[in-house]
Amino acid sequence: MQDKPHDDPYTEPESSPPKKRLFTRRRVVLGGGAVVAAGALAGSGFLAFDRYRRFGRDAESFIRDHRVELPASVPPIVIAHGTDPARNVRTAIDRLGGMGRFVGADDVVVVKPNIGFDRTPDQAANTHPEVVAEVARLCLGEQPQRVIVCDCPVAESRRAFERSGIMPAALEVGAEVVLPEESSYRTVEISPRLGTWDVLEPFVVATKIINVPVAKHHNLTNTTAGMKNWIGITGKLRVMFHNDLDRSIAELAALMRPTLTVVDASRVLMETGPKGGSLSAVKQVGAVAVGVDPVALDAWAYSLWGVGPNELPPLFELAEGMGLGRAALYTDAPVEIVTG
């Protein structure tokens, strides 16, 4: 995919002086096993106001297309079944040719889980931490410049990142973790209809993005997985998407063209989503679906509730019409692997 000209500091000429790392207003980045304490305003009402008041400006940045060209022999979807979430991730990505097909030494990689809520891994409201950690570990194995895990939760960010288990798991394998309160933002036009938003800076400067959603019930869309996960690229209030929600999700997915999508269905919140809470609403599915067609992967997520290809909501017709993928691939051409 050909990139547009941009001001990404990681692709400056070699003669340019090294730039300071980005992403933080107060140099509050977590990573490399170290945690720098946040400033006194972190999580305060002032900071939240600062995040929400700045929309509507002219776009100053763009989101590149993060897809890579793959040989025809690579299947569009691989589904791994087993009791070990990390092993499922490893096995599925190996079947796609390994992480080296997707990530290289020059890359700044952003891993985007769903860390929406202050919930434990057993409650299945967020991506399983072992899935996120294994994706980050495989990326780090290709020795890119950076691997950053970030999201914009509905709940208070630090508590959601910690209680989900994702922050400690990501830090343990050597990834960086960026909280939204501690990130800089870039203004990006999402679509003519949705206008210009402030987007977390890691999503703008990333050269590769791996979407790592959890498949779960949602009270507005019945099911949520990869395409809806892009709402977490900004702190913009989620209610602002609800006017024609399917179209908003499709337009977000048209903006964010990931390198790879890894759908976590290790433990699935079958009802009372998106927040959940009761363990009685959680089903042990023990699956991870990985691939390069986000529409087909979302269709597979809907199939966990018995929704067939002809029963999918209007979102899928919109997404297919935008050229984002083909829902039927999840039935036409999946590769199923049992890892044990």
Strand content: 15-25%
- CATH top level assignment: Alpha Beta
Counting H and I runs of at least 4 residues, what is the number of helices?
A: 10
Low-confidence stretches: 1-21, 24-29, 32-56
Question: Over all CA atoms, what is the radius of gyration?
Answer: 19 Å
In N-to-C order, the SSE pattern is EEHEHEHEHHEEEHEEEHEEHHHE
Mean of residue pLDDT values: 85
Shape: globular
The figure for the number of domains is 1
User: SS-based structural class?
Assistant: alpha/beta
Q: What's the total count of β strands? A: 14
Indicate the percent of residues in helices. 10-25%
Largest sheet: 10 strands, mixed
At the fourth level of CATH, the homologous superfamily is LarA, N-terminal domain
Plain-language structure description:
This protein has helices at residues 45-52, 85-95, 129-140, 157-163, 166-173, 201-205, 245-255, 294-303, 314-321, 329-332, and strands spanning 30-31, 34-35, 77-81, 108-113, 146-150, 176-178, 185-191, 195-200, 208-212, 214-218, 222-224, 260-269, 282-291, 334-338. A hairpin with a 3-residue loop joins strand 7 and strand 8 (195-200). The protein starts with 29 loop residues before the first strand and ends with a strand. The chain is built from ten helices and 14 strands. The chain has 340 residues and is of the alpha/beta class. The strands form three sheets. Strands 3, 4, 5, 6, 9, 10, 11, 12, 13 and 14 form a ten-stranded mixed sheet that branches. It has a two-stranded antiparallel ribbon with strand order 1-2. It has a two-stranded antiparallel ribbon with strand order 7-8.
